[in-house]
Amino acid sequence: MDNQYELNLSKIVDGHFNVTYRTIRMVKCPFDYVIYQMILNEVKPDLVIEIGTNHGGTALYLADLMDLLGKGEIHTIDIVEYPIDNLILNHKRIKRFLGGYEKYDLKNCEGFETILVIDDGSHVYNDTLTVLEKFKDVVSVNSYFIIEDGALIHIGLENQFNGGPVKAIKEFLQDNFNFIIDRKWCNFFGKNTTFNINGYIKKIR
Fold this sequence. Notes:
The mean pLDDT is 92. The N and C termini lie far apart (51 Å). The chain is α/β, with parallel strands linked by helices. The protein has one domain: Vaccinia Virus protein VP39 (Rossmann fold, 3-Layer(aba) Sandwich). The chain is built from seven helices and nine strands; from the N terminus they run αββαβαβαββαβαβαβ. The strands form two sheets. A seven-stranded mixed sheet has the order 5-4-3-6-7-9-8, sandwiched between helices. Strands 1-2 form a two-stranded antiparallel sheet. The radius of gyration is 16 Å and the shape is globular.
């Protein structure tokens, strides 16, 4: 039988825009969708900060995983008010914050022992670097700062995002030696076979 299999990045990109969770738009690469549940099970965070709510599918997914773990809450941050399903509005583990990451008060992190941060915001280099600098101190040791969608450099959008997340991560790591790229997750399905290229950043001290 002829081998007809071929990895088609453009098809994966198209497909990820149609990913839903419990019928709610999620916009998540299936590779990363799977990795997130493994990371949450490993870290068992008390708080996940998600920058970029969109329609809330990822926030609901993470909150449901926290239900299975029996602990934790998610602070999901966005600029605009998208239509939000009652599954999200009524979930006991989800707290929503509007006004963007700039207006999020880090005092909201007080009292949580284990914190994980996910940046799924604008993906513009300048914003990504600012987010990294703002939230780096609240990420717990042995937890993660996940920077999404570095893969845009492979679909011809790097210039539109001023270099995007990959450029910001590289610059951030030059001055922040307590973080490393965790290749266990970046290379889980093959070398950087993830939309979060170099984006699984672990705090080691």
